[in-house]
Design goal:
Layout lengths: L1 H22 L4 E12 L2 E10 L6 E13 L4 E12 L7 E9 L5 E12 L2 E8 L3 E2 L2
Antiparallel strand pairs: 1-2, 2-5, 3-4, 3-6, 6-7, 6-8
């Protein structure tokens, strides 16, 4: 019994470590996109990327898109976007961008962003989607 438990724990440990390594990036330490209601129907889509090193030669947001739920068609539609928002500082390890949209109070929104980071060893891109929020 003790041997079986040890074997199960070893398998769980090895598989969880493999999954974490598969998701790791040599260039991107953290990236996120948040959708924030500001009141009066205004929505901010805030995108942030943090490189694994301050020596990134190219870092930023390739695109950020804000979506609104269309109650008439029961679909999400793109209502605002921005592309190519990169750091202007050479060897900068992080970058952020805020996209502001005058929405409609009571409607639902979410944001999508695609990020990029490059250093001397290569580059990586990652995409993330925010949670859904209701404009106030």
């Amino acid at each position: 019994m003790k041997r079986a438990v040890s074997l199960i724990l070893a398998v769980l440990f090895l598989t969880s470590g493999t999954a974490a390594l598969a998701r790791a990036s040599h260039q991107i330490a953290d990236a996120r996109v948040d959708c924030i209601p500001q009141g009066g129907g205004v929505i901010d889509a805030f995108a942030f990327i943090n490189g694994t090193t301050p020596w990134c030669t190219h870092i930023g947001i390739m695109s950020v898109i804000l979506y609104e739920w269309d109650v008439q068609t029961s679909t999400w539609k793109s209502v605002a976007s921005a592309t190519d928002q990169y750091s202007t500082e050479q060897y900068d390890g992080r970058h952020s961008y805020a996209l502001t949209y005058q929405g409609v109070a009571g409607r639902n929104y979410y944001a999508y962003a695609k990020f990029i980071a490059e250093d001397a060893y290569g580059s990586d891109t990652k995409s993330f989607t925010s949670g859904t929020v209701r404009a106030t």
